[in-house]
Design goal:
Helix content: 10-25%
Radius of gyration: 19 Å
Distance between the termini: 34 Å
């Protein structure tokens, strides 16, 4: 057996039985886990928005936003930039003598998920802890039975150069976890929303490059469109299946040298947005 694929098989088995280290080396190399790139985004307050409406748009409790942005006690102002986490939660300062892994155990949060949420930092002073039901206005539920999405992100079915799951990195030959599909397409190819929803992010985002994120099904499901050349939607915009959201590009830090769209499907959970295999959701 080829040694690379033997290594991949071992990694998959170890992950299945929960034997990978607390911070798997492979996770640190994944596209969504580049050092310094957190899952906390920056939102610029638009005309007519309030703290409550912003929280509702991101399926969060207002208290989560005020905790992360202490200056919001008197409300928000147009043009103000605020931090928005991927789930309800709190900021926690690491006590002296404690590691953030120990804090993760105390809050019963998966260490690998926490590692990604906080930008893959090895020794942060403060970390964001997703708390799910503990701080939510209403129960946070996740999609346990995959619901088929209406459309497809490209004009025609495209070859998958890199599938979801544990893979061999095409450029480093190292095992890593790939959070979606790399769909081969020429630069400039139109990219469409696969279902109706609300755009919650439309901007450059670290290793993702130009990125569009759309929340679907009342915030239970999310799709991501990365490495775009151009973005044709804006934050807060409502879209339908088939609406153009951008064009294929080569921005960010991709896993493949060939032009492609990184397409992800994520479901809501108490730990934040968890990557799912798109094959379960696309018709």
């Amino acid at each position: 057996m080829n040694s690379r694929y033997a290594l991949l098989s071992v990694a998959v088995l170890l992950n299945f039985f929960g034997l990978l280290p607390t911070i798997p080396p492979a996770l640190a190399q994944s596209e969504q886990c580049q050092a310094g790139t957190t899952s906390i985004i920056r939102h610029t307050v638009a005309n007519g928005e309030t703290l409550a409406s912003i929280a509702q748009n991101y399926n969060l409790k207002p208290a989560t936003l005020t905790n992360l942005n202490p200056g919001l006690g008197n409300g928000v102002k147009v043009g103000q930039e605020i931090l928005v986490p991927p789930a309800d939660g709190i900021l926690v300062q690491i006590p002296r003598g404690k590691t953030w892994q120990e804090v993760a155990r105390a809050y019963k949060v998966r260490p690998d998920v926490l590692f990604e949420l906080n930008g893959c930092q090895k020794s942060p002073n403060t970390i964001f802890i997703p708390l799910g039901n503990k701080v939510s206005y209403r129960p946070q539920t996740s999609i346990t039975t995959p619901t088929k999405l209406s459309g497809y992100p490209l004009p025609a079915v495209a070859p998958i150069s890199l599938a979801y799951g544990w893979q061999i990195h095409p450029m480093t030959n190292q095992v890593f976890f790939h959070s979606g599909w790399d769909l081969l397409a020429n630069v400039g190819t139109q990219v469409s929303a696969v279902d109706a929803g609300t755009v919650v992010l439309a901007q450059e985002q670290g290793s993702y490059g130009q990125l569009v994120i759309i929340n679907h099904r009342n915030g239970l499901l999310q799709t991501r469109y990365a490495h775009l050349q151009s973005i044709l939607v804006q934050n807060g915009q409502t879209v339908k299946a088939g609406d153009l959201v951008g064009t294929v590009g080569t921005t960010g830090k991709a896993t493949s040298p060939q032009p492609h769209l990184l397409f992800e499907v994520r479901s809501s959970s108490p730990q934040g947005w968890v990557a799912q295999d798109p094959v379960q959701y696309l018709k």
